[in-house]
Structure formats: C-alpha cells, structure tokens
Design brief:
By secondary structure, this protein is mainly β. The protein has 2 domains: 208 residues, no CATH class; 165 residues, L,D-transpeptidase catalytic domain-like. The chain has 5 helices and 30 strands. The N and C termini lie far apart (50 Å).
C-alpha cells in the first residue's frame, strides 16, 4: 500500500512536469533519484547476463525496459541518441526572449557589465532554454498540496504568499546530481533529496534552502540562488550549498530564483553578504585551514553538516576528528574534520568484505569488519546502475567471468554473478566486443542514470575492484532506501566524447596511464 501511494505521488508530479499544470501531492517517502523521470538519457540497456544454468544467451534480446514518462529509450542495438528534454515539458511559465547575442551582458545582481559569456552558461533572466541546454528545473509543493509549474529559467519563482512545504529539482542534459534540502524551525533540516526526489515536509512553510551540484554538472557550473521572504526581505545570493533564507525568525520563503554560471566564472559578481536572516551565520567556514561551524539559530548543534561536497560531523558546533561511532557506523575523519569517504588508501584492507547495493539510489557501499561489532565500517562506495529486475535480498557470489556475452550481443568486463541460479551480474560498462577499445561511451557517461535491465553496472575500475577483491561467497545485499548509504553517492566527474571507445578508468588501456 505504501509503495502504491508513493507511485501515485510520482505519477502526479510527472503529470505536472509533462503538462505544466499544478498537481496534487501525497505524503510519501522521497523515492529519488528522480525515478528517471524528465532526466532523459541516451539509452536504456537490456544487459541481462546469459542464463547460468544453460550458459546460453538469456531472455529475449529485444526485450526493453518498461517505458517511463519523460524517459528516452534507445534502439535494441544500444546505439546512443542525443539527450533532449521530453516533449511537452514546460520550460518556464513566464515568457522567454531570444538567445543572447550581445557580447556584453548586464549583470543580474550588480547592474554592471561583463565580458563575452561562453555558450550554455546561465547569466540573465532573458536567456533562452533550449531542449539541449544544461539547466535545473524547480518545483515547489504549496500548502494546498499542489506542485507549482516547473521552471527552468533564471526568473523569480513565486509559489504563493503562504510559501511552500517541499521542493523538487532536476538536473537536466548533463550527468551529475543536484542535491537540495529545506529548513523549517520545528523539524530542522530535511534529509538531502536528489534529482527530482522531493524533500520531506510537515505543515511548516520552508524558511531556508541549500542547493549543491556534483559530478559533471558540478564541475561545469556553479549554482547561485536567492530567496524572497514573506515580509518582503530580499536575501543576498548563496552559492553551491550555502544556506539562503531565514532561520528561526518566524519568516519563510515566498519567492526563489536561481542562476547557473560556469564554474569559477569571475563575471558572476553576485552580492553574497547577507544571504540569511538569522541570529548567526549558518554553515562551515575555513579559518587558517581549519573548519569552524556556526548554527544559524545561534544554538549549539550536533549532527552532519556540509561545505559544498565536503562533509563533517559536529558535536556542539565542534567538528570531530579521528574514528567516531555515528548512527550505527564507524567513520574516520581527517585532522581538519573532513569525512574520509574512501578508506582504501588509509587501511589497504584485504577483507573480508560485504557489499550493500542501494537499488533506489544506484549506490554501492563496501564494508569491512569492526571486530565483534560486525561489518559497520564503510570502506568504499561506487556509483552503479541497476534496473527494475534487480532483485532485492541477500546473496552469495557463485562465479566470475573475465568477459561475458550479454543478451543483446554486447560484452562486459569483470563480471561477478550476484547469486546462484540468477542471470544478474555485477559488471563493467558495455562493450561491443570483448575488446577494451569497443566501449559504448554513453554507458560510461550516464552511469547511475540509465537503467540496466537487472544487472548492476559499474565503471570498469570499480567492477574490477569487486572482481579482484571479493572472493566467491562474498555476501551482497540489495535493498532500497532514499539515503544513498553511509557515504555520499559518487558521480561521474568528466564526460568522455562519443568518439572515445575506451573506459578512462580501465587499467588495461595504456592511454589512461593507470597502474
């Protein structure tokens, strides 16, 4: 029943995305990451392995994933297509002007002028959003339980005088993730939502927000955003995860605007002096190389905090260091307080390992033992792609293959079968032949976004790590959760061109210079 309500909510939000109309909302869990809705990818692969019993090709090679509104699929041969926005989706409820041609632009925050702007960089409210333009899309859940129209352009979005309870944001036309969360006084910060999932809510209007980018999207753009409060106060701009709005002052957000600029673009001269109306600044600042945390409410705080992609845990506003037991896990923090999210360079553990795959968030975490406490030390984390047919449960790996023919006459490297009698493999990205120079580049670029048809797909480096380090009989648990895992979800950091037919993480390719 709970899953049915969740799916109804997603269908309602999808309808709003495709029609531009307000949609009813449902109080369900955040299902993220975007349910592959309105984040069109170049292809959907049917990468089911050969039947383990007969060792012949498995199910019908023409089989394709069930269609999802707003998701672009590919021919059965897996050929790539150019990602585009789904037809019929509103780009903004307000008018747009022709694409910019003037080599100088008026700065939207300062009123000054800037040099010529590179293409595909968000700069002004008049910039036209095309089907292939990388952009973010925002929607807000209003107190009447309807979602606002989707907006992609740099305009002020006005959810209404009563504010909003939740937000949903999509990163469109580039790999990577958009993460966002909201603050209200009674409940504090929501959990991070990602790629179209909605932030959890109660009946309080949102007072403050944080938005940040990761992967290719985050390496390409900086995101700036500003809020209008219900008393008319216009907050200065925040950037890349900074807190914007108000905290514990009785005020809430009634207007919101965002803008994308090229990463580290010096022409993004936004006023960022007073982004928050609160008793104190909110977040981590670095002073003499060390983190200093301030809670916007002015009270002492204990919990997780982020400085863009850097993650900390503070106790009474003081960042912890060294080994710490938190939320049932054992973590390690650097001397400067940053959480270490890959322990292999520190420990070089030989195992044994356990693997847990979050199907909902396409994130795999490897664990090691903490003595008699069990497998509670998160050791490494991998981005992956799963599919509708990926089974849930706990399995033991029975066999491995260096190369393996899939049911679409494609091949994968470093394959580990999930469980006895299953046609599901953990494997690399997709190749046309058992040759490292026949990679299908889109399967690398869109890892974590494009669905498989049941197998669990990794970069070649990560599939090889599992192949090399996890012996037969390794326990693998597949589960679903809106939280990626104890670590943040990794992301592809750089796209490869369509003409590059090898995986940049593959140690077998001399061009990569890896050992």
């Amino acid at each position: 029943m709970r899953k049915t309500i969740r799916h109804m909510a997603l269908l309602a939000l999808t309808a709003a995305l495709l029609t531009g109309q307000a949609a009813p909302a449902f109080a369900d869990d955040n299902y993220g990451p975007g349910m592959f809705i309105d984040n069109p990818q170049p292809e959907t692969n049917t990468d089911t392995a050969a039947d383990p019993a007969t060792d012949s090709q498995a199910a019908d090679p023409t089989q394709t994933a069930d269609p999802v509104p707003g998701q672009e699929t590919a021919p059965a041969d897996g050929s790539a297509t150019t990602p585009t926005a789904p037809a019929g989706t509103e780009t903004a409820p307000t008018e747009t002007a022709p694409a910019q041609t003037d080599p100088t632009q008026t700065d939207p925050a300062q009123g000054g002028t800037s040099e010529a702007i590179p293409p595909n960089i968000q700069t002004t409210p008049t910039r036209e959003i095309t089907e292939s333009t990388p952009c973010l899309q925002f929607q807000f859940l209003r107190p009447d339980m309807t979602w606002s129209d989707p907006v992609r352009t740099d305009v002020t979005i006005m959810p209404g005088a009563d504010g909003f309870y939740s937000m949903s944001v999509y990163a469109i036309n580039l790999p990577g993730d958009v993460l966002y969360r909201t603050y209200a006084s009674q409940r504090g910060w929501s959990s991070w939502a990602m790629n179209g999932g909605h932030t959890d809510w109660n009946t309080e209007p949102v007072e403050a927000v944080q938005v940040r980018l990761t992967g290719v999207f985050g390496n390409t753009f900086d995101v700036y955003y500003t809020s209008t409060l219900n008393d008319g106060t216009q907050c200065d701009w925040s950037k890349n995860g900074g807190t914007n709005g108000s905290m514990a002052t009785g005020r809430y957000i009634t207007g919101f605007r965002y803008s994308l600029w090229g990463a580290n673009d010096p022409n993004a001269n936004y006023v960022m002096d007073n982004p928050l109306v609160a008793a104190a600044a909110d977040g981590i600042t670095i002073v003499d190389g060390m983190p200093v945390f301030s809670n916007g409410t002015g009270a002492l705080f204990t919990g997780w905090v982020w400085n863009d992609s850097d993650r900390y845990y503070v106790v009474d506003n003081t960042p912890v260091t060294g080994w710490q037991y938190i939320d049932g896990y054992k973590y390690f923090f650097e001397a400067d307080g940053k959480l270490v999210q890959d322990l292999e360079p520190y420990l070089q553990s030989k195992g044994p390992f356990q693997i847990r795959i979050n199907k909902q968030m396409n994130c795999t975490t490897v664990y090691i033992q903490d003595g008699g406490n069990g497998y509670i030390i998160p050791y490494k984390t991998f981005l992956c792609s799963t599919g509708d047919d990926t089974p849930l449960g706990t399995f033991q790996t029975p066999v491995k293959y260096r190369w393996r023919l899939m049911n679409t006459d494609e091949y994968c490297q470093y394959c580990t079968r999930l469980g006895e009698g299953l046609s599901i493999l953990l494997h690399s990205v997709i190749y046309e032949r058992p040759d490292v120079y026949t990679l299908k580049p889109s399967t690398y670029n869109w890892l974590g976004a494009t669905k498989s048809h049941g197998c669990i797909r990794f970069t070649t480096r990560d599939a090889k790590w599992i192949y090399d380090n996890c012996p037969l009989g390794t326990a693998i648990t597949v589960y679903e959760s809106a939280t990626p895992g104890p670590f943040d979800r990794p992301a592809i950091q750089q796209m490869i061109p369509d003409t590059q037919t090898y995986d940049p993480t593959d140690v077998n390719v001399p061009e990569n210079g890896l050992q």
